[in-house]
Amino acid sequence: MAKKKRITQRYSRSKSKLGKAPGHISYVGLRDKEPSHLQLITYNEHNFKQSEIAHKQLPVKNELETTLLNIVGISDEEAINNIGSHYKLNNLLLEDVMDTLQRPKIDEYDEHLFGVFKMLYLDGEKQIKIEHVSLILLDKQVLIFQETDEDVFGGVRERIINKYGRIRSRGADYLFFALLDAIVDNYYVVLDDIRENLESLEEEVYENPTKESAKKIQTLKKEILRIRKWVFPVKEIVNRMLATESSLIDKDTKIFLRDTSDHCTEINEDIVLYREMVTSLMEMYMTNMSNKMNEVMKVLTVIASIFIPLTFIAGIYGMNFTNMPELNSPYGYPLVWLSFIIIGLGLLIFFKKKDWL
Amino acid sequence: MAKKKRITQRYSRSKSKLGKAPGHISYVGLRDKEPSHLQLITYNEHNFKQSEIAHKQLPVKNELETTLLNIVGISDEEAINNIGSHYKLNNLLLEDVMDTLQRPKIDEYDEHLFGVFKMLYLDGEKQIKIEHVSLILLDKQVLIFQETDEDVFGGVRERIINKYGRIRSRGADYLFFALLDAIVDNYYVVLDDIRENLESLEEEVYENPTKESAKKIQTLKKEILRIRKWVFPVKEIVNRMLATESSLIDKDTKIFLRDTSDHCTEINEDIVLYREMVTSLMEMYMTNMSNKMNEVMKVLTVIASIFIPLTFIAGIYGMNFTNMPELNSPYGYPLVWLSFIIIGLGLLIFFKKKDWL
Amino acid sequence: MAKKKRITQRYSRSKSKLGKAPGHISYVGLRDKEPSHLQLITYNEHNFKQSEIAHKQLPVKNELETTLLNIVGISDEEAINNIGSHYKLNNLLLEDVMDTLQRPKIDEYDEHLFGVFKMLYLDGEKQIKIEHVSLILLDKQVLIFQETDEDVFGGVRERIINKYGRIRSRGADYLFFALLDAIVDNYYVVLDDIRENLESLEEEVYENPTKESAKKIQTLKKEILRIRKWVFPVKEIVNRMLATESSLIDKDTKIFLRDTSDHCTEINEDIVLYREMVTSLMEMYMTNMSNKMNEVMKVLTVIASIFIPLTFIAGIYGMNFTNMPELNSPYGYPLVWLSFIIIGLGLLIFFKKKDWL
Amino acid sequence: MAKKKRITQRYSRSKSKLGKAPGHISYVGLRDKEPSHLQLITYNEHNFKQSEIAHKQLPVKNELETTLLNIVGISDEEAINNIGSHYKLNNLLLEDVMDTLQRPKIDEYDEHLFGVFKMLYLDGEKQIKIEHVSLILLDKQVLIFQETDEDVFGGVRERIINKYGRIRSRGADYLFFALLDAIVDNYYVVLDDIRENLESLEEEVYENPTKESAKKIQTLKKEILRIRKWVFPVKEIVNRMLATESSLIDKDTKIFLRDTSDHCTEINEDIVLYREMVTSLMEMYMTNMSNKMNEVMKVLTVIASIFIPLTFIAGIYGMNFTNMPELNSPYGYPLVWLSFIIIGLGLLIFFKKKDWL
Amino acid sequence: MAKKKRITQRYSRSKSKLGKAPGHISYVGLRDKEPSHLQLITYNEHNFKQSEIAHKQLPVKNELETTLLNIVGISDEEAINNIGSHYKLNNLLLEDVMDTLQRPKIDEYDEHLFGVFKMLYLDGEKQIKIEHVSLILLDKQVLIFQETDEDVFGGVRERIINKYGRIRSRGADYLFFALLDAIVDNYYVVLDDIRENLESLEEEVYENPTKESAKKIQTLKKEILRIRKWVFPVKEIVNRMLATESSLIDKDTKIFLRDTSDHCTEINEDIVLYREMVTSLMEMYMTNMSNKMNEVMKVLTVIASIFIPLTFIAGIYGMNFTNMPELNSPYGYPLVWLSFIIIGLGLLIFFKKKDWL
Question: Are A301 and B304 a contacting pair, CB within 8 Å?
Fold first, then answer.
């Protein structure tokens, strides 16, 4: 393919799972299996502590502090299992944590709330990266399972560390919201990148379309279709969180979630809009190609239509008949030139009138 | 791009907000930061007063009069904060007031009703202008936050000043409705402009399509898509106002809102209709281009098909074989001319019959 | 535009209403302002009376008779106001009566039911006419506001006069239904006309498409889109009348309305169907044009491909080299002719085999 | 039109009904008015009787037997009226019985259930026939109103006569279901015919598309659109029968109706599928036509591009300048031939490399 | 057709069923009638037994064990009838078991739950196979009716035999779920195959589209449409199982079903996505074909436009007029060559500037 495929997370789930029991815990993804490492943050309005821990020393719930446990690396089955049994997490849930192809969703359990999302972000080379992330909200605690070190939660951590905004004074549900909000905010970044691509492609198509342009348009369209797949379900997830009666989410936090829901609506509308615009762009490309073809044909037609008749006339007087009186007339040659000029000009005027020149 | 882009309000929200806490109040827009200025109108059926005030001298509620506070300029964070705390407005709300990219919406609070809209209007050069406007309905008071001096509320102010219609005798909820109605009425103006553009483009495409026409059609389509984005949500907003049980909106005012809801339905239908018409127009353009191509090809075909065979005949008798009996026959030359005429006419008749001439 | 636009009711509402207060009563339409004239019909099973009245002598309700008041001309503000206050009609309602661009709708009031519709009918020259009509159902009385003398209610009046059917023995609600039914029946007439146009265009496109055909198809499509705009809402209106709990409409009358609802469903389906058919027709047109182009290219290709190589051969022996042995051979000239025939026939067979002839 | 239109039932309802009162009973169809004839079948588990009766000797209800009255011919207003008053049928119902353009629907009355359907079946020449049929279910009795002798109920009658299956042991509601089921089963026949047409057209388009193919595709598309119109509403009808609380339909019969509902779902899905496939087919046709055009252009381009330059070279040495040294050189003529061969082969190789040969 | 049709299960249901009574049990399919053979598995947490049985020795319910009866071959009417009466299955149900064209569905009965599905799997040659399968859940027992030996339940049987996962410790409802889950998991395999085809076709279209590519795209599209037909209803089925109040399905099993429902959502979304991508691919193909045509035309235009005028000039000096002074001038011939070169280069530069070279 001409353009490097930007979104690469995609392979056959069927091959790795077929014939396995549901709830069978195994890593489904493209990365090598590596041990998970865990980062623990505990904070309340006054205190803040950050440390690396091993998956065998998991913290117990602390009534006075909010705990954020960040598990990086989801291919370490032992660690995941350990964490699962410590926090009493269902096997089906753990399966989803490790299944990087799992569609975004939210599941409510009695003791916790489990959300699966896709982090979309741009890496250094402006390639769109997709990463599987699971957020679990327990009483006073939030767990993040993510594939790699890179994430979109830097801003949230900074706000915790620097005591900026209201995050330190609110509970785990607000933290859960803040993480979700960070994920959604990054969708804007990716969509802005899509829009910029769309606009530069638009300029290319309008100004100087080449054969490559069509491929670029189609690639962009496929990117939009794939982003749509991961982003569209989030709105429904947020709305289900708004409607939940679970005691885990506070009424005050729902006011903020309402805002996130608005953002999701806007994002979904933008995706639909960009989809329509990319279709228009393809249409415009086809039109331009067709116009170019028109121009090519006009040039051919004008030149051929003028010179083919003239060549015929020259051909007449190139014949070798013995009795062609014109040939010997002293006016013959100039008159033929006159006819060349008259016919040529006549056709030129004709084409001019037809606006083909 | 060929045509000056008419709708220009559009830039990256992601760059200005990413990593900030939700409810963080900062101006999101393209204008320079300038101090807000406030215009205060108080009126009842008998009295009317208008004055400029500073944001440190905000008025207290007056049970006998309706107050309209018009804040022009939404980049002055200090002023906005001041007003916010005076009227006990939520930080998330103030964020939306200053976020010029916020999608139209309505939020109900216990003490007030908060609506975000886009004013669409035509400026002097018939360019479509989009301005972010927030309307807040409190008991006996209405606040307008707008970006610039220019607005679509001139008619409402005149009716208050001149005591025209029922506006002076009704409360703040009617004022809120009147402002909303003015916004919606201006959508008609913009749509009428779109329709006029559509019709003149239609004429261009039918009568004399050029390469530019396609670009104009696509630009118009994008304008319609963008207007749709800002205008479509308004219908839902009005319907939610009709369904609200908030005591802020009187039952009598809802009769008027029902009318506005009808208008929104009509506007949305028109946008859909124009969208379909612009698609038809593009189709027609393509057809016309294709017909033009057909004509070009016909001319080439007719001229080439007539003269190429004739040139071949002339070529035959231009050969230099020694024994070509025709060359020396006295009838040779006239007979060749006869064949030219017969073949030429024959082909002409053939093309005439095929309707290519 | 090639074809005379058939549907002409369409102009800028925005220009006439912008900045006016809602409920401001003024005529919105293209006709000159003229005084309204009023026709009064009163009837019961036994009696019937018909008279012209002035708008200052409006009738009082008669418990024993059904009253039909027909107001022709909706630009006479004084008359409309007079009638409005006599029947205690809301200003917003009167505004809609005079606003010829008002979308079809039904509003329920405590004392009356107010419906706005579009009469569609064919005039003498088979042009589609659109007229704004408002029907008001009060207890024992029906008011019709219409733009001109022409209407679609002739059949209803005849049935009243001639005591045909059940109309004389039933109340005002049945009369309201009968008028609505007459409006809907005329949609069939207009749709039949559309269908006939569609079929004749279809024949034109299949048999002998010209450049004009595309314009005609597009014009028809626009007509269908516009009719859809006025006709589609009627189904919802009828369904709301069926669901109403207003005492103005009798249960028996609803059986008839159910029939009208069925008709509306059918009409809406037909409009959708015709829309699809017109799209197919455009597709067919494009295909035909493309086939024609194919044929043109084939003719060019066949003629040019045969004669260009032959001309080259003739050109060879028209060269003036001194030592061209073929020229002096007695077989040269016949052999060249042989090659002409063989090459020509060979190419003919080749094209025949390709099915291009 | 190229292909004989297969579905012919279609003409202007508007012309025959406009201005008539609703419930006015008159035949709306294309056939000549003919007297109806009536066939009466009575049966129970043990007895069976079949007879022709006159419409003046209508049977009375028989508590012990199920009665099937089959009225053939719906243009005999006297007979219809007679039957209507005997069975206490509403005038609006009778109107629908005689209106061959009536959309399929079901109406529940207190004493009977009234269904309007379209029988679709293939006649001897594989033409699709559409016939208007009304089924009325009364207590212990079923009435069929049909246009002609031909129907799709042969199987049902045979099962009654031959006591096959459970039909003889069940009541009138099962008979009603069996008739409806027979109608729906015949939709499969028609759809299978459509599918066969689609497949043979598909083969034609893939193997040897002609200009006629496009017309055939469009005709098939129109057939599908029209069948959709008559068949789609049946699903809703069956679902309303399933949901009815009328005592006329037994709970046991509803189990069978559920099956019919499944069939309707499948039929509707198939119609949608065929619609999509016919669109694909048209697309494929266009692609094929475009590919053919490509081939034509390639042949022209190859031949013209090779011989036009060669002809030019031959033309050079056909010039009559006195001092053209090449002409007198003994190598001149062979060298020109060499250049012919080199240029010709070069271009051939060029075109070969471009894959145009 | 170019490509071997991969999905072959499809023939006329209408021919085999028309005129038969509903609930008439007969095999509807393409295979020869063969005797069914039955495989019986009984297990609980501790025991496991597997045996082949005859349809006359059907097992009785065993309160302590879960029974899985696998009936292979559904054309043996006697066996099916026997099984039906042993398990008290409805005739309509048995009809659906044998009707290989039956749409997927679920029917709840008092004593059992009846599901019809399509197994989709790839055979050895990567052809998509469709097989009709019915699952019946009774208390403690599950029946599978399938067409052939081949199925997708190998993994489930292995888990039972090897006591892997929780299947042995759970009841019949979990077994039912596990079978359904295996069916759904195989949809992923088929979809992955579709996706691979799509991607290889995409590469073909982008790199080297041929006439065959269009057919392959259309064939793939038809495959997707047909898979959609069989797979789409499954989601609704699972959701109805989730909502059922039947005591046959345990609350714990529903947690697993929720997972299956998620998978169905994802599968349906993927089908929609692939459908859109195949449409894009066709569009891309058309664009590529159109670009190729453009290139062909450019070559023709460049060559013809350069040499046709030059040939004309050569033609002039090939004329035989007696007084053509240029012919005798010693500069004549070189000057003509100069004009050849200038004109030729001029046109080359012109075409270069137009980017046609």
Answer: no
Residues D317 and D264 in one domain: no
CA C206, C211, C214: angle at the middle one, nearest 5?
70
CATH no. for residue B181? 3.30.460.20
**Chain E residue numbers touching A292 (CB-CB < 8 A):** 294
In a domain, E7, yes or no: no
Asked whether residue C1 is domain-assigned, the answer is no
Whether residue E347 sits in one domain with residue E317: yes
Closest residue in E to D303 (Cα–Cα)? E300
pLDDT at C119 over 90: yes
First and final C-alpha spacing in chain C: 39
Share of chain C above pLDDT 90, in %: 34
Same domain for E167 and E307, yes or no, is no
Find the CB nearest B256 among C22, C229, C315. C22
In a domain, B37, yes or no: yes
In this prediction, residue C14 carries a pLDDT of: 57
Q: How many CB atoms lie within 10 A of CB C342?
A: 10
Same domain, B27 and B125: yes
Q: Examine the domain organization and report whether E349 and E264 are in the same domain.
A: no
Identify all chain A residues contacting E165, using CB atoms and an 8 Å cutoff: 21-24
| Residue D150 belongs to domain spanning | 13-287
What Å distances lie between residue D291 and A78, B300, C260, D198, E290, CA to CA? 59, 21, 51, 22, 9
Interface probe with B: pick from A290, A316, A354, most Cβ of B within 10 Å: A316
Under-50 pLDDT residues of chain D? 1-11
pLDDT computed for residue C17 by the predictor: 59
Cα-Cα end-to-end distance for chain B: 38
Of A164, A188, A206, the CB nearest to B21: A164
Residues of chain B with pLDDT under 70: 1-19, 30
pLDDT tens for E318-351 read 888 888 888 888 888 888 889 889 999 999 999 8
pLDDT score for A3: 40
Confidence category of residue C7, pLDDT binned at 50, 70, 90: very low
Q: Given the structure tokens 């469903």, which residue do they identify? A: C265
Of the candidate ranges A175-179, B215-219, C7-11, C322-326, the one whose mean pLDDT is the lowest = C7-11
C150/C226 same-domain check:
yes
**Domain-located, residue B5:** no
Going by C-alpha positions, the residue among C168, C176, C112 that lies closest to residue C139 is C112
User: Which residue, D153, D194, D189, D264, is CA-closest to E14?
Assistant: D189
Q: Which of E287, E312, E331 is the last residue of a domain?
A: E287
Q: Would you call E24 and D181 a contact, using CB atoms and an 8 Å cutoff? A: no
Per-residue confidence (pLDDT) for residue A2, from 0 to 100: 37
Residues of D in contact with E292 (CB under 8 A): 294
Q: Are residues C138 and C165 in the same domain?
A: yes
Residues C269 and C161 in one domain: yes
List C-alpha distances in Å: E286 to A238, E209, E225, E290: 41, 10, 21, 6
- Label residue E136 by pLDDT band (50, 70, 90): very high
Q: What is the pLDDT of residue D15?
A: 54
How many domains does chain B divide into? 2
Q: Which candidate, D221, D21, D17, places its Cα nearest to that of D101?
A: D17
With beta carbons under 8 A apart, name residues in chain E contacting A116: none
- For residue D346, the domain's CATH number is 1.20.58.340
Q: Which helix (H) or strand (E) holds D129?
A: strand D128-138
Quick one: pLDDT at residue D163?
82
